[in-house]
Specification:
With 608 residues, the chain is α+β, with helices and mostly antiparallel strands. It folds into 5 domains: 6-130, Beta-Lactamase (2-Layer Sandwich); 143-249, PAS domain (Beta-Lactamase), CATH 3.30.450; 262-369, Beta-Lactamase; 389-493, 2-Layer Sandwich (Beta-Lactamase); 516-599, 2-Layer Sandwich (Beta-Lactamase), CATH 3.30.450. 33% of the residues lie in helices and 32% in strands. It has 20 helices and 25 strands. The protein has a 6-stranded antiparallel β-sheet with strand order 13-12-11-16-15-14, with helices on both faces. A hairpin with a 5-residue loop joins strand 14 (325-332) and strand 15. The radius of gyration is 42 Å and the shape is elongated. The two termini are 79 Å apart.
C-alpha cells in the first residue's frame, strides 16, 4: 500500500509523478510534480481536475496497456507500462511508467500514482531508469525499506529509505540508534525473531510504533525470512520494513467518522447464531463501548414487537441474495427506550451457495425518522390548510407547463389535476403567447414570485375569478432552473370587494369634488398623510396638495395651533368623531375662509 504524500511527490527529482483520483467511473488528476509538468508542457492549473486521457492521449497511445496496469494495481500489485503520448503543443513523447495505488479501508483503490521517465519515442524501454534508482524510488513510493542481517559476519545492512522511515543518521551505526527508537519489548521481539529465523528458517513479522520528530506516532512492521546458499544453508536474514502510518491513521479516522456518524459494525455467524458488535455498535444500543457478542435470539427479542415480523422477513429475504439489504426498525436501548436503527447488510456465501457470514452496519437514525414523521404530520396539516383556504399546490417545468397539481385544484380552478397536466399556464390565464413568454422570462430572471394576482377562467363558470400565486424556482445540481413550484389561492371574493370599494371611493371623491369639498387623512400627531384633491383657495402656495404631506393641520388654520393637542384628543375620544367650524388662512395674501371640518379616529385592534 502506498503512502506517497504531497511532499514526496514534489521532491522526486528526475521522475515525473502524476496522481489521479477515482470517483465512480470517472478519473481526474489531483496532483502533479514539476518534472511531469516539464515533460508534458502543461501548467498545473491546466491539468488539475482533468481526465489524463483528455490531456495526453494521442492516436499512438496504447490504452489497453494503461488499463491493464490499473487493473493490476486494483489487485494490490504495482505495475509498469510504456506509452506514446502527446505534449500540450501536440508534439509526441514516450514514457516508461510505474503505477501504484492508494487504498481505502475497504481495500479499494481511490487514487493511482504514476511515476514516469521520458524514454526514446521509437524505443520504449527502461534505458534511463536504472535498477538502483528504481529500487530507491519504489521504496519511497511504497513506504518500505529493505534490510539484511548476515549470519557469518553479523553485519546489518539497510537501504536508504530505512534511514528515512526511522529518522536515523546514515553516518551512524543503525543497531543502537534503532534500539533507541523502538520500545524494549519491540527490540527484544525483533532480535529474538531474527535469531530464530537464522536457526530454523521461520519467517516473522514484528509490529512497531514510535513518536517521530514532528510529534506524530508512526506505525509499521518489520518482516524477515531466511536467505540460503546453493546448498540450502541459511546465510542471512533478509526482510522488509513497511511504514503503515498512513493506514493506521486512516483506520483511526475511519473509526472517528463512524463514531461521529453514529454507525457501528456487525457480523453475524450463522453457524453459531451469534452477532459480533464493534465497540461503536455496542455503544449505540446502550451497552459498554467494547466489542461484544449477542445471540440472534436475544437480538430479535429486543426488536420492537410492531416491527419484529417485518424486520425478520427482510432479514430472511436478504439471506438469498448477495445484494445489500436495508432494514429499518425500532430496537430496545439498554435504558429501555426505543431507538430507530437502519441496518445495511450483505451476505457472504460458500462455494455451495449457503450463507456463512453476514456483514452489516448499524446506524442510529432515530432523530431522522422522528423528524421525518413530524414533517409528514406538518405536510398533512399544510394540505388541510390549503384545502380550508381554497387553494392548491402546483409545479411547472421550465417552459411553463404543469407537471403536478394537487387534488384541491378541482375546487379552485374547476379542473381535475389530470386535465391540467402538460397544459401551459396560459391555458388558465388566457395570456397571449408573447405575454406568456415574457412572464416566463421574468420568472427565470427573478427565481421566485410572491403574491402575484392573476385573473383566470374557472371551468364551469362564466364569471371572472382571481387567484393569488406564490412560488419559487426548482434547481438541479448544476444550479440550473428546471421548473417552479408554488401555491395559489382563490381571492375572487376579496378582489371583487376591493374593486367595489375602489369604485365607491371614486364615486365619493367625485361627489366631494363637485360639492367643493376635500377628503384627507391625518396621522396620530395630526399631520397630513393623504389628500384627495386640492382646495383652490391654496393654489400656488406652500400648502398646495403636493407640498402638504407631513405638515400639521394648523399650517392651514393658525388659530388651531394652541388647541391642536386638545382637538386631537377630542377626536380620539369621540366614537363618531367631531365636526368643527375652522377658519382657514391662505399665506399667499392672508385671506381667510371658513370651513366645516368633520374628523373621526381610526383605531387599531388594541383600541389605539
Amino acid at each position: 500500500m502506498v503512502t506517497l504524500n504531497s511532499t514526496d511527490i514534489h521532491n522526486l527529482r528526475g521522475v515525473g509523478v502524476l496522481v489521479t483520483e477515482k470517483c465512480g467511473d470517472q478519473i481526474s488528476i489531483v496532483d502533479v510534480n514539476d518534472v511531469d509538468l516539464h515533460n508534458c508542457g502543461f501548467r498545473r492549473e491546466e491539468l488539475i481536475g482533468k481526465n489524463p486521457a483528455d490531456c495526453f492521449d494521442s492516436p499512438d497511445t496504447e490504452k489497453d496497456a494503461i488499463i491493464r496496469a490499473q487493473k493490476s494495481v486494483e489487485q494490490g500489485k504495482a505495475s509498469h507500462f510504456t506509452a506514446r503520448l502527446r505534449k500540450k503543443d501536440g508534439t509526441p513523447y514516450a514514457i516508461s511508467c510505474m503505477v501504484t495505488g492508494h487504498f481505502d479501508a475497504e481495500r479499494d483503490v481511490f487514487q493511482y500514482c504514476y511515476m514516469s521517465t521520458v524514454i526514446d519515442y521509437n524505443d520504449p524501454s527502461l534505458n534511463t531508469f536504472g535498477r538502483t534508482d528504481m529500487m530507491t524510488q519504489a521504496e519511497k513510493m511504497t513506504g518500505s525499506a529493505s534490510w539484511r542481517y548476515s549470519k557469518a559476519c553479523r553485519e546489518f545492512l539497510v537501504s536508504k529509505n530505512f534511514y528515512t522511515i526511522f529518522e536515523l543518521d546514515p553516518d551512524i551505526q543503525v543497531e543502537p540508534r534503532l534500539g533507541e527508537k523502538l520500545s524494549k519489548a519491540e527490540t527484544d521481539a525483533l532480535v529474538n525473531a531474527t535469531e530464530n529465523c537464522l536457526q530454523t528458517g521461520e519467517e516473522f513479522d514484528v509490529e512497531y510504533s514510535f513518536f517521530a520528530k514532528d510529534g506524530n506516532q508512526r506505525h509499521g512492521s518489520v518482516s524477515g525470512e531466511a536467505e540460503r546458499d546453493e546448498t540450502g544453508q541459511i546465510t542471512a536474514v533478509i526482510g522488509v520494513v513497511r511504514d503503515l502510518s498512513a493506514q493506521a491513521n486512516l483506520q483511526t479516522e475511519h473509526s472517528m467518522f463512524l463514531h461521529a456518524a453514529k454507525i457501528g459494525a456487525m457480523r453475524v455467524d450463522f453457524k453459531n447464531e451469534v452477532i459480533s458488535l464493534s465497540a461503536d455498535a455496542a455503544r449505540l444500543i446502550g451497552e459498554e463501548a467494547t466489542h461484544m457478542e449477542i445471540t440472534l435470539q436475544d437480538w430479535r427479542a429486543r426488536v420492537h414487537p410492531e416491527d419484529r415480523d417485518k424486520a425478520y422477513q427482510e432479514y430472511e429475504d436478504g439471506l438469498s441474495s448477495d445484494k445489500t439489504v436495508i432494514r429499518l426498525y425500532r430496537f430496545r436501548h439498554a435504558t429501555g427506550t426505543w431507538i430507530w436503527f437502519e441496518v445495511r447488510s450483505t451476505t457472504v456465501f460458500d462455494h455451495d451457495g449457503k450463507p456463512t457470514t453476514l456483514y452489516a452496519t448499524l446506524m442510529d437514525v432515530d432523530e431522522r425518522v422522528r423528524t421525518r414523521r413530524k414533517l409528514e404530520i406538518n405536510e398533512e396539516r399544510f394540505r388541510d390548510v390549503i384545502t380550508y383556504a381554497n387553494g392548491c399546490v402546483f409545479e411547472i417545468d421550465a417552459t411553463g407547463h404543469f407537471t403536478y397539481v394537487s387534488d384541491t385544484a378541482n375546487n379552485v380552478l374547476g379542473y381535475k389535476p389530470a386535465e391540467l397536466l402538460g397544459k401551459p399556464t396560459n391555458f388558465l390565464s388566457k395570456m397571449s403567447e408573447d405575454r406568456h413568454d415574457k412572464w416566463l422570462e421574468k420568472l427565470h430572471n427573478d427565481g421566485d414570485f410572491t403574491l402575484v394576482e392573476q385573473k383566470i377562467t374557472k371551468k364551469g363558470s362564466a364569471e371572472d375569478h382571481w387567484v393569488s400565486v406564490t412560488g419559487s424556482a426548482i434547481y438541479d445540481k448544476n444550479n440550473k432552473i428546471t421548473g417552479f413550484q408554488g401555491t395559489l389561492f382563490d381571492i375572487t371574493e376579496r378582489k371583487l370587494a376591493n374593486l367595489k370599494l375602489l369604485e365607491n371611493q371614486k364615486r365619493l371623491n367625485d361627489v366631494v369634488a363637485t360639492a367643493q369639498g376635500w377628503i384627507f387623512d391625518l396621522d396620530e400627531n395630526g399631520c397630513f398623510t393623504y389628500s384627495s384633491n386640492q382646495i383652490a383657495f391654496f393654489d400656488d402656495s406652500d400648502l398646495s396638495i403636493d407640498r402638504l404631506r407631513g405638515k400639521p393641520t394648523y399650517v392651514m388654520a393658525p388659530a388651531l395651533k394652541d388647541r391642536h393637542e386638545e382637538w386631537l384628543q377630542a377626536i380620539q375620544k369621540s366614537p363618531d368623531g367631531i365636526a368643527s367650524d375652522i377658519r382657514l388662512v391662505s399665506p399667499k395674501e392672508n385671506n381667510e375662509i371658513w370651513a366645516r371640518v368633520h374628523c373621526a379616529a381610526q383605531l387599531d385592534d388594541d383600541g389605539l
